[in-house]
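BUG-222 | component: ligand-complex export | severity: low

The export step for cobalamin jobs runs without errors, but we want the raw record kept on the ticket for reference. Input record follows.
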Amino acid sequence: MNDILQRIATAVERGKTDRDAPYPPDLRGEEGAAELTARALQQGIPPERVLADALVQGMQAVGDRFERGQAFLPDLLIAARAMTAAMAHLRPAFESGAVQHRGTFVVGTVAGDLHDIGKRIVAMVMEGNGWKVVDLGINVPAARFLEAIPGQDRCVVGLSALLTTTMPAMENTVRTIKAQHPEVPVFVGGAPVTAEFGARIGADGYFPNPQGLVRHLGRRGV
Ligand code: B12
């Protein structure tokens, strides 16, 4: 992997937000995820690559350590903070890619689920591809989606779930939306979600990443 991408991944994994961040002590004074991301973009590395090959890799690495019992909740939180700091630099790069208004993307993490990062990445990539984004946030009850949909131009919904325990809430949300708005496409994603699960709960599709959703919507001519 490119050296700067590797350094960004490590900064996210270790929770090194920026140069001034006192944590972790062994990286004191060194550049963090924010400065490194800005520099990678200045060097002309495409934002999609910085996202996929550095930021997501860093989160994945800390997640793997968490699974092995080698990292703990505070480690996840500071990694998430470093990722957020880096994403602030990516956002304008994605937004500048907007070419035409394709419709409105209403997105949220389902009820009971507080995971935010993947959903925010999906929102950012959709925005960069010409979608107006209505981000309902995390822990979103099905009723909030119903309130947000009416009046939106060419509305598409995206649901995120990161916990096996919140997958039933995802099912409930899809079924609630479809009962009121059968014409609105609903797409699902998140680490435990699969294409089979998406099909079973009546979603219009599952994608493991936002790029897949963007390609799919492009093929449909939306
Ligand atoms: C960071 C993190 C946290 C942070 C979240 C911070 C934040 N601001 O979001 C905090 C510390 C809060 C947290 C809390 C918890 N977490 Co947590 N967390 C993670 C971790 C390490 C990374 C998640 C992440 O951000 N990944 C990076 C992003 C970029 O990836 P992503 O979310 O998967 O999104 C991508 C795709 O899935 C997709 N996508 C996502 N949504 C959508 C939607 C659509 C429409 C589309 C098309 C695509 C798409 O696109 C994204 C970009 O590529 C994962 C482990 C892992 N490897 O996933 C555990 C993990 C999800 N957490 C887990 C657990 C158990 C918890 C807690 C219950 C821990 C506890 N004991 O309290 C709590 C639950 C709190 C709650 N009620 O939600 C488990 C879930 C296990 C399970 N099978 O259910 C995991 C898998 C860790 C583990 N192996 O044990 N967590």
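Assignee comment: Attached the raw record above. The longest strand covers residues 103-109.
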